[in-house]
């Protein structure tokens, strides 16, 4: 019996080691996206429904907000789990119809991208033509990106990638005239060309799940071996 108990403790020690956190796992965020202004005042939420031509807009009521899910990887896509168009399930970016000289962002350049429904792209990829809600609604072929988001604490940031692969300084604005969210590299240059905007930021609100809390298969197997050894020992004593 002493040998069996010794084996039990050894197996449990190994199981404890295998039960440890997985280095590659990232937290999973499930909730909604708050929209805040430069003074950190809550303005509303990112809409569940698309507005105008497949873009996302601002809604006042959380009941009308998009339900989202994403992982806290260095660059990630945001899945709209209850979005209006299953074919374009991600809250991504679509290059602006009126962009000039390509789609690059930069100081003095009014280029922009719609925050709209897209398909998935690779993290940090240069925007390229792809299926999206804006093109579906207008017939205008535009470049897209989805995995350009990052998160610090609960605050999200967008990172547009220019044609040379560099990450451009990116601002998120609410274009009041059309109630759509846009990304741009120079809000003032955008405003001179298109009109008033509000500089905004996105903050996650909801549940954060830690996948490392789930036991790994090796730990479960070792735990099962330990239980089996204890059961056999009791049968022999009986």
Q: DSSP strand (E) fraction? A: 25-35%
Question: Roughly what is the average pLDDT, rounded to an integer?
Answer: 86
Q: What's the quaternary structure here?
A: single chain
Helix share bin: 10-25%
Poorly predicted regions are 7-23, 218-233
Task: Give the termini distance in whole angstroms.
Answer: 12 Å
Under CATH, the topology of the largest domain can be stated as: Trefoil (Acidic Fibroblast Growth Factor, subunit A)
In short:
The chain has helices at residues 2-18, 133-138, 187-194, 217-237, and strands spanning 28-37, 42-51, 55-59, 68-71, 79-80, 90-95, 112-118, 128-129, 143-145, 149-152, 155-158, 171-175, 180-184, 198-209. By secondary structure, the protein is α+β, with helices and mostly antiparallel strands.
List the helices and strands and how they pair.
Blueprint lengths: L1 H17 L9 E10 L4 E10 L3 E5 L8 E4 L7 E2 L9 E6 L16 E7 L9 E2 L3 H6 L4 E3 L3 E4 L2 E4 L12 E5 L4 E5 L2 H8 L3 E12 L7 H21 L1
Antiparallel strand pairs: 1-2, 1-4, 1-14, 2-3, 4-5, 6-7, 6-9, 7-13, 8-9, 10-11, 11-14, 12-13, 12-14
Helix pairs in contact: 1-4
Describe the structure.
The protein has 2 domains: 2-22 and 214-237; 28-209, Trefoil (Acidic Fibroblast Growth Factor, subunit A). Mean pLDDT is 86; it is low at 7-23 and 218-233. Strands 1, 2, 3, 4, 5, 6, 7, 8, 9, 10, 11, 12, 13 and 14 form a 14-stranded antiparallel sheet that branches. Helices cover 22% and strands 33% of the residues. The chain is an alpha+beta fold and 238 residues long. The protein has helices at 2-18, 133-138, 187-194, 217-237, and strands spanning 28-37, 42-51, 55-59, 68-71, 79-80, 90-95, 112-118, 128-129, 143-145, 149-152, 155-158, 171-175, 180-184, 198-209. The chain is globular, with a radius of gyration of 24 Å. The protein starts with a helix and ends with a helix. A hairpin with a 7-residue loop joins strand 4 and strand 5 (79-80). The protein contains 4 helices and 14 strands.
């Amino acid at each position: 019996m002493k040998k069996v108990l010794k084996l039990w403790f050894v197996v449990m020690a190994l199981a404890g080691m295998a039960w440890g956190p997985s280095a590659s796992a990232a937290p999973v965020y499930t909730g909604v996206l708050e929209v805040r202004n430069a003074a950190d005042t809550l303005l509303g939420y990112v809409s569940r429904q698309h507005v105008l031509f497949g873009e996302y807009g601002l809604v006042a009521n959380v009941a009308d907000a998009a339900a989202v899910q994403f992982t806290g990887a260095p660059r990630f896509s945001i899945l709209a789990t209850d979005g209006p168009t299953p074919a374009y399930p991600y809250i991504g970016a679509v290059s602006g119809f009126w962009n000039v000289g390509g789609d690059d962002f930069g100081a003095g350049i009014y280029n922009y991208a719609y925050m709209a429904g897209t398909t998935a792209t690779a993290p940090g990829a240069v925007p390229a033509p792809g299926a999206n809600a804006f093109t579906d609604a207008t017939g205008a072929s535009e470049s897209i990106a989805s995995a350009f988001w990052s998160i610090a604490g609960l605050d999200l940031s967008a990172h547009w990638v220019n044609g040379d692969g560099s990450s451009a300084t990116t601002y998120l604005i609410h274009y009041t005239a059309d109630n759509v969210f846009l990304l741009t590299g120079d809000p003032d240059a955008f405003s001179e060309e298109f009109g008033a905007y509000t500089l905004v930021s996105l903050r996650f609100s909801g549940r954060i799940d830690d996948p490392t809390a789930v036991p790994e298969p090796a730990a479960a197997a070792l735990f099962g071996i330990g239980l089996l050894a204890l059961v056999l020992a009791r049968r022999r004593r009986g």
